[in-house]
Design goal:
- With 269 residues, this protein is of the alpha/beta class.
- The chain has ten helices and eleven strands.
- Strands 3-8-7-4-5-6 form a six-stranded mixed sheet. Strands 2-1-9-10-11 form a five-stranded parallel sheet, with helices on both faces.
- The protein starts with a strand and ends with a helix.
Length: 269
């Protein structure tokens, strides 16, 4: 069984290596490309006013990497306990690990428990809701949608989180740390994708945008013989709407994904 890993390039390569260590034939086929925003002015301002926020929510490891890459030299130091009291909020363990790599102490990071059923905005809110009081400001660090794309459902959890902050009497503000776009695909990748639509490969999806980009890339392709594994119910629903014949769901941790891949790979489409 072959696994098609659709995350952005850096994440896809890392996941492909990790899955290969479990004996799976994993191939990176990034369906999302990420890069810095054209104008970092809003990021610079966010850093300069970091202490005004009770918490900074990072939606992904990419949000962490690009946010910290934009840090001005004289900005407040997020890493030091003595500098500010602002906490870092991570939607899942991958984002939390990215914060640790950025230099934050573990005690500064809030993240859903490892045994949480699903890692998303809803699970994070259960952890941090007690920190949001009347007048509190929250910063949500996210990626920007491709030009002409309405988000493909990508930001629904973030909007839900912002609404919860507002209902608690706080104010949520957004800042774009990186830009998402559709990659330029090679002839080899085109052949790989079309073959994987019918040969029993399992497509590993970690975002609804990856599914949308695949559909836009190959609009005439039938996916009725294809298998998919999604790391969130919203992503699974997008794969079903795209026409995938078999769609499984998994928590986004490596052991859970490996176990679920084996199950999906054994399912007849």
């Amino acid at each position: 069984m072959r696994v098609i890993v659709t995350r952005p390039e850096r994440d896809a390569q890392r996941w492909a290596l990790d899955l290969s260590a479990f004996g799976l034939d994993a191939v990176a086929l990034p369906l999302i490309q990420v890069g810095p925003v054209a104008d970092p002015a809003d990021l610079v301002q966010a850093w300069q006013h970091l202490a005004d926020y009770v918490g900074v929510m990072f939606v992904s490891g990419n949000a962490v990497a690009h946010f910290f890459a934009s840090k001005p030299l004289l900005a407040p130091e997020f890493m030091l306990m003595s500098a500010i009291q602002t906490r870092a909020w991570a939607t899942g363990p991958g984002t939390a690990r990215a914060l640790l790599r950025a230099g934050l102490a573990p005690e500064r990071i809030d993240v859903p428990a490892p045994d949480t059923a699903q890692f998303d905005s809803e699970a994070l809110w259960q952890v941090v809701a007690v920190q949001v009081r009347a007048g509190a400001r929250v910063l949500i660090v996210r990626g920007g949608d491709p030009p002409g794309r309405g988000g493909a459902g990508q930001g629904s959890g973030r909007e839900w989180f912002a609404n919860r902050v507002a209902q608690a009497g706080g104010r949520a503000e957004f800042v774009l740390a990186y830009q998402r776009c559709t990659p330029q695909f090679s002839t080899h990748q085109d052949q790989l994708a079309r073959q994987a639509a019918t040969d029993g490969s399992v497509w590993l999806f970690s975002s609804t945008e990856a599914v949308a980009n695949l559909r836009a890339w190959l609009p005439g392709q039938s996916w009725v013989q294809a298998r998919a594994l999604a790391t969130h119910p919203r992503i699974a629903e997008a794969a079903k709407k795209a026409g995938f014949g078999v769609v499984g769901e998994s928590r986004p941790t490596l052991p859970d994904v490996v176990a679920s891949l084996n199950l999906v790979g054994q399912t007849a489409s």
